[in-house]
Amino acid sequence: MDMVQTTLCYLERDGQYLMLHRVKKEVDANRDKWIGIGGKFEDRESPEECALREVREETGLTMTDYRYRGIVTFVSDRWPTEYMHLFTCTGWTGTVNQDCDEGELAWIGKQDLLSLPMWAGDKIFLKLLDSDVPFFSLKLVYAGETLTQAVLNGKSIL
To answer: Looking at beta carbons, which pairs linking 92-95 to residues 24 or more positions away fall under 8 Å?
Structure first.
């Protein structure tokens, strides 16, 4: 059974999130979409360790004030099931590395996020983050790139 464990982190400053526009890899489930910062677990990593490493590798920043916000289960007819551990971060050291292997990094105002090309399910959890919802479990089911089901804390919302 294929399963993938990942982290995704939204670094926040002045009403903006540091976003990654995935434009550098030809074969990429997130090709041309805007997402947060993150990636796959390495062997023996905790969610926090993975988030810290991925943010450091992709941005050059070292997180100092971060919060584990929820778990998102992605089910797809194209990709293995993914369990994504979701974080936000409001403190870090270092400066943003503008030469990211994964795509282009940009600070985007929260009010502008939902107009960017992104997965429909990402819009759901971004609203949950913005509403400061306590730790949550969100299941998102896709047929191709179409969101067909969303279940928040065991209750269908789509």
So the answer is: 92/11, 92/55, 92/61, 92/62, 92/63, 92/64, 92/65, 93/61, 93/62, 93/64, 94/59, 94/60, 94/61, 94/62, 95/60, 95/61
Alpha carbons 61 and 91: distance in angstroms, whole number: 10
Could you tell me the pTM of the whole model?
Answer: 0.93
The two structure tokens encoding residue 89: 């971060």
For the chain, give the longest Cα–Cα distance: 42
37-79 pLDDT tens trace:
999 999 999 999 999 999 999 999 999 999 999 999 999 999 8
Q: Which residue has the tokens 């047929």?
A: 143
State the Cα–Cα distance between residues 148 and 50, nearest whole angstrom: 29
